[in-house]
Amino acid sequence: MRTSAIITTGNVGLVGGGGRTMAGAAAWLALGLAAAMAQPAPSTNPPAASAPASVAPGPTAPATAAAPSAEAPAPAATAPAAAPATPAAAPPPATAAPVTPAPAAPAASVLPTDEAIAAAGFADEVMLEAKPALVRSGKTVWDDLFGAFRRTIAELKAVAAREGAEITGPPMVRFLSSSDDAVDFEAILPVKDTAKPAAAYAPAAPGTTPAGKTLRFVHHGGYDTMEQTYDEIANHLDERNILAEDAFVEEYVRDPDTTPETAMAIFIYVFPKATPTR
Questions:
Q1: Which of 245, 263, 264 is nearest to 253 (CA)?
Q2: 201 in any annotated domain
Q3: Is residue 7 part of a domain?
Q4: Which of 53, 96, 163, 268 is the most exposed, having the fewest neighbouring CB atoms within 10 Å of its CB?
């Protein structure tokens, strides 16, 4: 490696490198001595301010040796290797906005409309067709008649929901027998089908809705006025000499779970006995 050195006297500078520095210094010393011999004797005047500078080359040589280290450029500091850039974290995948399912279309009501109920007459002849149903037997006292019906119908609805049986019509109650204290009945819930094994529908059982030729009567209001309606039905049958089966059916054409008892509407089906042929 070459190292630069600068030797300065007055306004004169020699620039060299390595061994050439010492040679330059010796030449400069020889020139200085020759100049001194050529000058006249010194006067008594104070020496010029520049005189000391003329003998400065003597001790300059060793100084020049140190100059390279003073003037040598420091080795460039090696910049530390840049730390590898940490890759930017990949943005999380965009989460799709949850899709709100469209509301299901309301199921068609299995109950008659208010217009159909209002149009129903007293003792209309109606032919009922047998349809698949869930059936549950029960027994209750007269004072708890309507409450027992509602509880049993609720059980049937729970079974239908559990087994995926689609309800297709209003719930019914068939009266089987009665005494002064109690009533035996069957709660009936029409469904689309009862294709599963019978045990799947426990505590209900698969069955069918009542079927056949009937006379349909309508009762409006709560059970506390039901006796009056049955008296009117009995009078209607007696006046026409119509004999009826002991079993009769009530169909709750307004939902007993959501309708106040006083706003209830119930179709009552009476099954006339066949007239004996002569």
A1: 264
A2: yes
A3: no
A4: 96
